[in-house]
Design goal:
It is a multi-pass membrane protein. It is built from 6 helices and no strands. By secondary structure, the chain is mainly α. The protein has 2 domains: 1-112, no CATH class; 123-176, no CATH class. It is elongated and about 60 Å long. Residues 153-176 have low confidence and may be disordered.
Length: 176
Amino acid sequence: MVNWALRFVLGIQYLVISGGVAAWYFSKYDCDRNKQELDSPISTSFFNAVKFHMGTAAFGAFVLTVMDVVRVIMQFFFRSEKVKCIFKCCCNNVEECLQFLSKNAYIETDTLLICFCEDKIINDGLSKPYYMSRDLMKFVENSKKIYGIKDQPTTGSLQKTTAVSVVSSAEIFYIT
């Protein structure tokens, strides 16, 4: 239980730091905001992590804790020291990979949404097409409503839809 709690707190820490850094870094692209006018990005990121991403941190901590439990149980059943050493080496490698993947998953969880929202604000879809599918654009729009990110007014929603469908057709064309 202590192992899970420690990993959970570390997961929340990664989410908070990555969210604060992403909010600060991507604020330079928005012409209306100034970096000095950011309203406490770390505390905002903490509240977003607790409100929206707590399950991600809990699941990541659970996966890593299960790996530890399996390692302890399997070491108990092995009699030979050589087999224990080989198994311990393999488990350590798998655990390092899982920790690396979970750490990057925490960072991308908080950062990726901000990237898509800022890209949608910068790119109006008229000069160049969006590189998102329709479903992803709907997800970004809903997420922007949740996070309270305001969109710049655009001139033609019909042109946006056309640009998205052209990109989707092009992606299908290249895949087949």
